[in-house]
Automatic annotation (TrEMBL):
Protein name, UniProt field: PhnA protein
Superkingdom of origin organism: Bacteria
Amino acid sequence: MTSQCQQCGEPAQTTLCKNCAKHMRRQASSLAKTIPELRALAERKAHIGERCGGVRGGEPGLPVSVHWLEVYEEAARLMLRLAGCVDLKWMLLPVEGWRPAYRAICRSWSRVVCSPSAGELADRLDRMLRRIDRLSTPSDGRVTVVQCPDCSTSLAVPQGMRDGWCPECGERLDLDMLVSGRLDAACRAVMTCSPAEAADWLTDRAGLRTTRKQVSNWLARGRLSKARRLGHGVWEFNQAELIEVRNRA
């Protein structure tokens, strides 16, 4: 008996028509390739900025992202749910069991596409992959460098990252609080540098992308009233004022 495909509404011999079943299989394969990348994103360490001296002689690394761990676990659980169409036991596994679950899906694909839940699972696969694609679109790369309060490791916190773990000591960190504290400290600080170096500080340390030309224009227009010229191309800048003016730009 011919029924309607749960995805497109076309006539189908099973829960999904041939075209939608092929699409779903491609999506399942894409998810299998993506899940390890999600885990790597959560645990990655990055090198940002110029190499400098220090205890470890390297640049600040990124905190382990709680957010990406959650996305990884959600994607792995979806793979386990797909395998549940073959045998319910797969749904009882921890998220680390997604690889054998995917192999079971490949061995018994016909049971997946004939499942009464095939249409719903195909929708979930599409939504999951679209979400991952949106989340992994590169941002503008703005970071604020903070220190882990437990082990003093320097961490480059991307804009919008709210919590995470220190990659060195494993301490759970409130990144919102650390970034706010880092920027508050700037309110009491001054620095002696050129406009280009002030722009680099705003970009790399305060997480506010700025160019040398912008800083020079602020000086020429009197917008940096607390800045004092010390010599040819050298100024004393109030860091809080730099941040305030940049936020209004």
